Amino acid sequence: xxxxxxxxxxxxxxxxxxxxxxxxxxxxxxxxxxxxxxxxxxxxxxxxxxxxxxxxxxxxxxxxxxxxxxxxxxxxxxxxxxxxxxxxxxxxxxxxxxxxxxxxxxxxxxxxxxxxxxxxxxxxxxxxxxxxxxxxxxxxxxxxxxxxxxxxxxxxxxxxxxxxxxxxxxxxxxxxxxxxxxxxxxxxxxxxxxxxxxxxxxxxxxxxxxxxxxxxxxxxxxxxxxxxxxxxxxxxxxxxxxxxxxxxxx
Length: 250
Known about the structure:
Elements: E1 5-8, H1 14-25, E2 29-34, H2 37-47, E3 51-55, H3 61-69, E4 80-83, H4 99-126, E5 130-134, H5 147-166, E6 173-179, H6 186-190, H7 195-202, H8 210-221, E7 231-234
Parallel strand pairs: 1-2, 1-4, 2-3, 4-5, 5-6, 6-7
């Protein structure tokens, strides 16, 4: 079989790092982006020549374009784009939130994802490849303080569905993966490094892991080429749907 290549954003932690390990373990080449050079270097040391690290802030669109154009020969033919990089602003209502944090999430989760996808689409079409976008259950189920994050992930979900319509007839597969609670650095970052808050959120629920999600990503990517998973929602067994909130004036 011809060796395949995946372009995975956000490989310095969590799902991205787990996905890089999972795909390289199955013989794929992986291009992995991240902002933390030391973590990229550590992952490259672990995974060897199958992993090509790109120190990159996906919000820097000019740097992203230049990095893609400068990929080495063995990593130019991309079969899978895994748009994993993303973040959430602090858990705050819109009226109490800080605008810069909200705009950072929008630029990362939406603008960068669209720009990178557009950049790689010609090659993906030529190779009849695949795009997997990391959305979230927050795209479907609202919660207090999640307006901006949930809004960005709803965009990712709808973008994935419409992208599939745009690519109809090209052979390119497009999937929106929509996880619930996964115990990674995500909540730690969202809470400004508050480990106690992160630990309290996941305490006793047997949350999903990054490795669980990477297994699903690999499964979707390696299905027969005539099978497309449009959207796939994942939750740990101990997480389900929130009830309605009712305010009763006293």
